[in-house]
Amino acid sequence: MTHPIDIFQMETAGVRWLESAPNLEHAKARVKEFAANSPGEYVVLDQKTGNKIVIRSDELHGASEIAGLSSPAE
Known about the structure:
single chain; alpha+beta; 4-stranded antiparallel β-sheet; 4 strands; 24% helix; 35% strand
């Protein structure tokens, strides 16, 4: 079974897929783990709705929670 949430890391050459997650809460936790070891910008994408969030590792320091998914860009 494929999970509906994908996690990507932004790189100079483009976007790198890291893994999928079963839900948004799991994806947020994984992004925090990835960012601790590899600072940068991450994208969490809901394949069902097309909604996404962009998370920068510098915004995670001291943040207790990451905001919900935003509407897809027009």
